[in-house]
Write a structure and sequence with these properties.
Elements: E1 4-9, H1 14-18, H2 31-38, E2 42-49, E3 52-62, E4 67-75, H3 84-96, E5 104-109, H4 116-119, E6 124-137, H5 138-141, E7 153-155, H6 158-165, H7 168-174, E8 179-182, E9 185-188, H8 194-197, E10 202-211, E11 214-228, E12 231-240, H9 244-258, E13 265-272, H10 279-288, E14 292-294, E15 300-307
Length: 309
């Protein structure tokens, strides 16, 4: 009889987790690059069969511990459909059963079939954003970039983001859906969440405009970039007003960041709000930098919540 066990995992389990599966997301797998960083503020769980790791799940507790989100799930080939994920899920439920702070689970997805829970009233749709994917080569893009960094754009630091998320005036303007997304995670507009998404993989740019005697943030682009098996994966969230010039200025700096990676292939995903951000402006700008649109991805990202109380 097989010996099946569940346990917590940490940074030291990197090799065993990666060995579960290596053909994930068509070469766009984020886990090899982000695992060690995620394990500093996430909780990892594994199921082993005869001491071999065959399933892994990683959860984050965000929104001051009130929201649970599954960030990664892996099952070894040959073990799909054998109840391993459910068994690991039961173990995790036991581990979190005494968590009095937990109020809800949130999940993001691109597969419209997963909207069934929303249609059945079992979950609430809290956000949706359109997704655009562009591909290019650093070697072709870099020569078209301005040689001087645009001084009209400022890099937002951790303190800037904490201040921003503490201002209702700013959050109402920039985040009308009541969430800020970073790498497919929908955070509520709480300053404490900055600790979860502000790290070495993140670059946040802002353009200000005058509003009477005050200055407010007019456009913000939040990017998370890292290397994946087929090159660079760079995801940008757009918040605020979008004009050709401002967006071009932001993209020049983001593509400059892409040029610092030791890969040539760029897979650049842009998440934007339908009806607020003109996709033609986005595509025109990307083409000016030598990037080509691709349809090899879901066209919409959804976020849904369900209560745990």
């Amino acid at each position: 009889m097989d010996l099946i066990e569940c346990r917590l995992v940490g940074i030291e389990d990197y090799d065993d987790v990666m060995a579960i599966r290596d053909d994930v997301y068509d070469g766009m797998d984020f886990l090899p690059a982000l695992y060690r960083s995620m394990m500093t503020n996430h909780i990892g769980y594994a199921l082993t069969v005869n001491k071999t790791m065959v399933a892994f799940r990683c959860d984050a507790f965000i929104d001051d511990g009130e929201t649970m989100l599954t960030r990664a799930l892996r099952v070894r080939k040959g073990y799909e459909g054998r109840g391993m994920v459910n068994r690991l899920g039961d173990f995790i439920s036991q581990e979190t059963a005494g968590n009095q702070r937990l109020k809800r689970r949130v999940y993001t997805f691109g597969n419209t079939n997963l909207l069934k829970k929303v249609e059945q009233g079992k979950a609430t749709l809290v956000l949706q954003k359109a997704i655009l994917l562009y591909k290019g080569l650093v070697s072709k893009v870099a020569p078209s970039l301005p040689t001087v960094t645009n001084t009209q754009i400022r890099i937002l630091n951790k303190a800037d983001m904490q201040k921003l998320l503490s201002s209702k005036t700013d959050t109402d303007s920039l985040f009308p859906q009541g969430r800020i997304i970073a790498n497919w995670v929908p955070y509520r507009l709480l300053a404490i969440n900055v600790d979860h998404f502000f790290n070495d993989f993140c670059l946040i740019l802002g353009s200000d405009c005058k509003d009477g005697d005050s200055v407010r943030l007019d456009l913000m682009t939040l990017a998370v970039g890292y290397t994946v098996p087929n090159g660079i994966r760079y995801t940008i969230e757009i918040y605020g007003s979008l004009t050709e010039q401002m967006f071009s200025d932001h993209m020049a700096e983001h593509l400059r960041k892409c040029s610092t990676f030791d890969r040539d292939n760029i897979n650049l995903l842009i998440h934007h709000e339908q009806g607020r951000h003109d996709p033609d402006i986005i595509t025109k700008t990307m083409q000016q930098f030598g990037m080509t649109a691709s349809d090899r991805i879901h066209s919409t990202m959804y976020a849904a919540e369900e209560s745990t109380i």
